[in-house]
Specification:
7 strands, alpha/beta, 7-stranded mixed sheet
């Protein structure tokens, strides 16, 4: 697996150092920051960060045109840095998930695909010859996605700024909806699943792949819970302990087929042991229990230090996964 999201660094715009503010100015800035941090409008984390850095509130806050311009530029700068980071930081994860995605996307129906959470377009390699539309809140990622679309000979490509809870598409307008690593960051998983069903034509399919919470009691679940607040703060609210399957099953699809697996070296290792005692035994024996999933596979016995360290490979927090097909 690739390096963990918790290890990726997003370069934030740096505030310019200046003279110490007067107590009056400090008080005013404090009120603006409180307005941002207490916002209840559902705005995204990058909106909040840009609001703090520009010294104005979140959406709808008062300010001069100059302040508003600073806010917009800071948000664009943050979004651009985030897109750049994800473009380089997730490549090895994508390589390790290629077999899973190849099998999943073999179930695409028709020639019109809508991808929720387009991102930088890592799935474009599977969409050759198709008409693809993508919905993504970070418009700064569109240049990466467009480049990927050109490289993989799509029939057409149309990125749209938006969110999965409110898809800018009419009812029954696409053949296939795709969402990979999306439900971890959305505000409302149920709404996203319902929207995916709404825009699908009769006979259409919703193809999904998400990282999920490891089983309770495993060391991996303990690590996910420990790093979840940091991961959400650093990566667009990405939750490490979510599980979207119930929301998809509630959306009203005719059928939902799914399979769970653990990707990479975490599979069968001490990280996925059901008890701490078994985790200690696996680590001290230096072995792994393999189950034949796409991501697993290295069996046999290794030195204790190797068993401990190999399991904690990059992106190990994302290794518990669910993949599936929901049919209209």
């Amino acid at each position: 697996m690739a390096s963990s999201l918790a290890n990726l660094v997003v370069e934030m715009p740096r505030a310019r150092l200046g003279r110490r503010r007067s107590s009056t100015n400090q008080s005013a800035r404090g009120r603006r920051m409180a307005t941002v941090l207490s916002c209840g409008c559902g705005c995204t984390r990058r909106t909040l960060i840009a609001g703090v850095l520009s010294g104005r509130g979140a959406l709808g806050a008062e300010g001069s045109n100059q302040e508003n311009g600073s806010f917009v530029e800071l948000r664009k700068s943050y979004d651009a840095n985030f897109a750049k980071t994800m473009d380089s930081g997730m490549k090895d994860y994508e390589q390790n998930m290629a077999a899973v995605k190849t099998e999943l996307f073999s179930h695409i129906v028709g020639d019109t695909v809508l991808e929720i959470g387009l991102g930088n377009g890592p799935n474009m390699r599977y969409f050759s010859g198709l008409h693809v539309m993508g919905v993504e809140p970070n418009a700064q990622s569109f240049e990466y996605a467009a480049a990927a679309a050109r490289a993989n000979n799509l029939a057409s490509f149309e990125p749209m700024e938006g969110v999965g809870e409110h898809l800018p598409m009419p009812d029954a307008s696409v053949d296939t909806v795709v969402a990979t690593l999306v439900m971890c960051t959305v505000a409302d998983m149920d709404a996203v699943a319902r929207e995916a069903k709404r825009v699908l034509r009769p006979g259409g399919v919703y193809l999904f792949l998400d990282h999920v919470a490891a089983p309770d009691g495993t060391p991996l679940r303990a690590f996910q819970s420990l790093f979840d607040p940091l991961n959400r703060a650093a990566y667009e609210g990405c939750h490490l302990t979510r599980d979207p399957l119930a929301a998809i099953e509630r959306a009203g699809f005719a059928s939902v087929e799914s399979r769970r697996f653990v990707a990479g070296a975490a599979e069968g290792s001490w990280l996925t042991a059901p008890t701490m005692g078994e985790a200690f035994a696996r680590a001290t024996r230096g072995d792994r229990v393999t189950h034949g999933s796409e991501g697993g596979g290295r069996g046999g016995s290794r030195p204790q230090s190797s068993a401990l360290l190999d399991a904690v490979e990059p992106h190990f927090l994302l290794s518990p996964s669910v993949v599936g097909i929901a049919r209209v």
